[in-house]
Structure formats: structure tokens, C-alpha cells
Amino acid sequence: MKIPTADPATFALSDWQSFVSEQGHKPFRARQIYRWIHHRGTFDPEQMTDLPQDLREALGELGLSEPGSVSFVYEAADGTRKILLDLKDETRLECVLIPMTSVGPDDDDDGEPVGSRVRVTLCVSTQVGCAMGCTFCASGQAGLVRGLRAAEILAQVYVARRYLKESEDLRNLVFMGMGEPLHHYDETKRALDFLTDPDGAAISPRRITVSTVGLVPGIRRLGADYSGKIGLALSLHAADDETRSRIMPMNRRYPIAELMQALREYPLPPRRRITIEYTLIRDVNDSEAHADRLASLLRGLPVKVNLIPMNSIEASDYRGADQDRVSSFQGRLAARGYSCFVRTRRGDEVSAACGQLALKGIAPERLVRKLS
Ligand code: SF4
Hints:
The protein is α/β, with parallel strands linked by helices. The protein has helices at 13-22, 28-38, 53-62, 138-142, 150-161, 185-196, 216-225, 241-247, 256-265, 288-298, 323-335; strands at 68-75, 81-87, 92-99, 118-123, 127-129, 144-147, 168-175, 208-212, 231-235, 274-280, 303-309, 340-342. It folds into 2 domains: 9-62, DNA polymerase, domain 1, CATH 1.10.150.530; 68-366, TIM Barrel (Alpha-Beta Barrel). Iron/sulfur cluster binds next to helix 4.
């Protein structure tokens, strides 16, 4: 059998079986390597201490190594930890550990500790920068540097687990960091396949949420590929095409009516809901009329709504909604029967809004693509 030339960090189990056989080792070594990577979370052959030395050396020669190294970990007073990974091509990516959060896919995940354990959500990036061009977002303003390889997506999960505290459990993964996961579908799917593989990271798909600006073909693919088991979050941010196109250029390609149709057809399992993300921007989308429009738009859909007072960013003149506007917006939705949470701005002091930290220090010439 021929060894594939693909990235060894994301070899399938069958690829490892071919590899160990060519190296003259017993078949069970393949599963050992696979579990070291996806269960124990290391890509470094030297850490794989129960493998024979010659096999570890062969793995090194094959090119198996950590996709990135941790350059900084910033911890906020509320326990939010932002982890910056330096990749081999000198780009930088970020992921954020958020304790006791309500942004995960669980309807029962109310942010309370379970017994003495603390639930933690990891926010994962799929691209360095982003091409979607949302006008209120740091990543959107800076543009796309590049998509991440599946191994670089996986590395965020495997590395972040090392930064959990004794009392914490990694409960949810949310693909809500830098980038648009459905704009980078193939590598995102490869990572999801390893994360949900019972022989791999063995994370239940219901603990994973993929967030999108509303790329309709991607929503349909995700629904079909995972039978709706992967949670879906939609960054909606406005309930009319005029406002939404102004702050989210991608709305011109997939307007709201088309998007709502894709949501209605997403094959959600019973009792699951789609998360609607709505960033409240002062004097743009935060009035009671906007709330009423949102309530009408979502009628009949199984959703919960997360309201996010906007983080101010250097690259934009937009400002977050005032507290009284946030409260009245939430009240209007709640009065119409919607589950509606205000997401607290966890980790403001570590710049946990997407893209704010990792893009600092990237030379402009590395920002290769930006939607106009
Ligand atoms: S809000 Fe999300 S999709 Fe929009 S530009 Fe920022 S990272 Fe990209």
C-alpha cells in the first residue's frame, strides 16, 4: 500500500496502518499513534513514549510535528484565557477558553458549574483573518490571511485542553473564532471528523456548534454531512436586508429569505435549537422596532437568541448599544416567547472579540484577501 503524501498530522487510521506495516511494525502500533494524536493530543513523536525509538524517528522523518507553538496565554480576571499559537509560516492564530459560558449548543447549559466542576467552552478559529468583511468586526476589517489546515484547527483543541484547570471540563466547542468555517468547509469538515471520531477525540457532535454568517450552500452541506447533529449558530445581527447588507456584505449574496429557508430545512434533531447571534450596535440595529422585526422573522423556527453588546474595535466607528437598549431589546423578544440571553462580554481585557489580538502585529502585506 502506498503512504499518502498528505499532512501526516491528519492521516486516517488506515493511513497509519499502511505506514506501520511499511516500517515493519505490528498493526496495533497504528492505533497507538492515532490515539496519541487525537485522544492524548500530541503531534510530537518524542512524546509518544510507548512507541519504539525507531518508529518515533520514522514519524519525525515523515514530518509529523506540532502544527504550532504557544506564544502567549492571556488570562482575564473572569478566567477567560486567550491562547495564541504561532504557526510554522509565522502566521498566528487564536482560540479562547471561556469558563461557565452560555454560548454553547446545550439548551441546558446555563453556565452553572456542575457540582464542583466548571464547564468550559472553547472558541475555535478556522481561518487567520476573515474574508466576510462584516463592518463591525476586527477580522472582517483586516481581511483574510489564509485558511487553517485541519491539523491547525485540531491543534487549538488539543493545546487548549492542556490549559484547563483541575476543576474544569471542556464541555463545548464553538467554531466562532476568527474566520468563517463554512467558507473553508473542507478543512473544517476534516477537523470535525477527527473531533467526533469515537476512536479520535470522541467529542459528541451535540457539543459542537459551527457559526456562520449565513453561507447557504455550506449550511446545507453541514446539515447533510452530519444529519443535523452538529449545532448551528447564525450570526444574523439584523432582521431586514437593508440593515444586514450594510453591516454584513455577504447578505447581498444570500439574502434573509433564502437564509431562513435554509434554517427551516436544517435537519435538527428533536429538542435542539439553532442559536441566533445578534450583536447590538448602537443606533444601527438596537431599537425596539428592530427587536419586533427580529421576533416576526424568527416566528416558528426552533431558535434561541444570544444578544451580544458589541465590543468597540479600533477599526470601526460603531459602538456597543447602551445598557437600557439591550434590556428593552431583550424584553421585547422575551415577551414574544423567545429564549433570549445577553452574552456577557467575557474576557474584554484579553480582547476576546474575534480577531482583535491575533491580527495585531501582522504586516499588511500578509492580509491577502478582503471582500469589497
Ligand atoms: S463577524 Fe465573523 S464572519 Fe464577520 S468578518 Fe468577523 S469573523 Fe468574519
